[in-house]
Design a protein that fits this description.
Layout lengths: L10 H13 L35 H30 L11 H8 L9 E2 L2 E7 L3 E4 L12 E3 L3 E11 L1 E7 L8 E10 L11 E8 L4 E4 L10 E13 L9 E3 L1 E6 L1
Length: 259
């Protein structure tokens, strides 16, 4: 290394030192640094891509394609459902099968709630394919008065208000013969003047003798929930006494319970 001694009082020496520093790349704060010039390169152009990411697909075109795909999928789903329903036929286990069973179930009478109550009766008439003579004696709470029958005739009892029936109570007269037995069928109607037993719903059959009997309807939900009348049809009358040619049964009181 070479060492130079500079006289600080000599201006020419100071200028020489400054020139030497410039030649070495050093400069003072008042001087601008050397500028570096970099050539500007152009951004390379990307190659086009295929598919939904391609620049050639506009927003409208992609929306149109999405709508077409949605419609195609919907048509395929509808066609599949139609074929499944058609091929399943009446199969109730099929998820797309007929809904008839569901509709039938929803129209059935609902199960009653609470205990049955005694119902008010409006009137009673003799019945044989039509309303006959009025018979107040079977709804007057008097067991000494009774209606009698030898068979093949009936008793029509109408309700004060439509109701769903649970029990029909039949009480014989005080003079009933214990040897006489009759087959009695019960029919419920949604009208007050039925003309045929086929118009109603059969509630059951009982064997009636000289003792009071309460017939309980096994399935109240199967009976009409708006019954307006009941026909007590005496099918036949028999007697254990072989000497009695024309046995007669009797009904003194009729009561009904329901909801």
């Amino acid at each position: 290394e070479q060492t130079h001694t500079v006289n600080a009082e000599d201006p020419s020496a100071l200028h020489a030192l400054a020139d030497a520093l410039r030649s070495c790349g050093l400069h003072t704060e008042d001087e601008e640094p050397a500028q570096i010039h970099v050539a500007k390169e152009r951004t390379p152009r990307r190659d086009k891509q295929s598919g939904f990411g391609a620049s050639g697909y506009s927003l409208k075109m992609m929306a149109g394609i999405a709508i077409i795909v949605f419609l195609l999928v919907s048509m395929v789903a509808a066609g599949t459902a139609f074929l499944t329903s058609f091929l399943s036929g009446d199969n109730e286990e099929s998820p797309l099968g007929s809904t008839d069973a569901t509709v039938t179930t929803s129209t059935e009478a609902t199960e009653p709630v609470g205990p049955p109550l005694y119902l008010d009766l409006a009137a009673a008439h003799e019945w044989n394919k039509g309303v006959g003579d009025q018979l107040d004696e079977v709804i007057d709470d008097d067991s000494s008065t009774a209606w009698t029958s030898t068979g093949s005739t009936g008793l029509l009892v109408t309700l004060e208000d439509p109701a769903q029936l649970a029990h029909v109570v039949i009480t014989p007269g005080s003079g009933a013969d214990s040897k006489v037995t009759s087959t009695v069928k019960l029919f419920a109607f949604d009208s007050t003047d039925p003309t045929s037993l086929s118009e109603g719903i059969e509630l059951g059959e009982v064997e009636f003798s000289a003792r009071s009997i309460a017939h309980s309807i096994e399935k109240p939900a199967n009976a009409p929930d708006d019954a307006q009348s009941v026909v007590i049809w005496v099918e036949n009358v028999t007697s254990s006494d072989s000497d009695e040619d024309d046995p007669t049964m009797q009904i003194a009181e009729v009561e009904m319970a329901g909801w």
